[in-house]
Amino acid sequence: MQRYLWQQAEGLRHAYDAHRTRLDLGVTFPTLCGAEVTTSREDVGKWLRPTCPTCDREIRTRLGPA
């Protein structure tokens, strides 16, 4: 079963495959949009950052209809 999570990084909320990545500050990780982004202290607690539109579209495609 796939497990996806959202994480703020580099100014946006990105989705990632939680089975492949363990996140800590300063870790660079692959996102569903294909970007490699890095978490930082500036991202902690910023849940209202805009959602990456490509990650949003990709996660909806992978999860299918509700």
Helix content: 10-25%
Detail the poorly predicted runs: none
What count of domains describes the coordinates? 1
- Full CATH superfamily name: Malonyl-[acyl-carrier protein] O-methyltransferase, zinc-finger motif
User: So what's the overall shape?
Assistant: globular
The CATH topology comes to SH3 type barrels
Distinctive features:
two-stranded antiparallel sheet; 1 helix; alpha+beta; SH3 type barrels; 66 residues
Structure description:
There is one protein chain. The chain has a single domain, classed as Malonyl-[acyl-carrier protein] O-methyltransferase, zinc-finger motif (SH3 type barrels, Roll). The mean pLDDT is 87. The chain has 1 helix and 4 strands; from the N terminus they run ββββα. With 66 residues, it is of the alpha+beta class. The radius of gyration is 11 Å and the shape is globular.
Protein topology:
Blueprint: E1 4-9, E2 12-17, E3 28-30, E4 36-38, H1 53-63
Antiparallel strand pairs: 1-2, 3-4
Tell me briefly what this model is.
By secondary structure, the chain is α+β, with helices and mostly antiparallel strands.
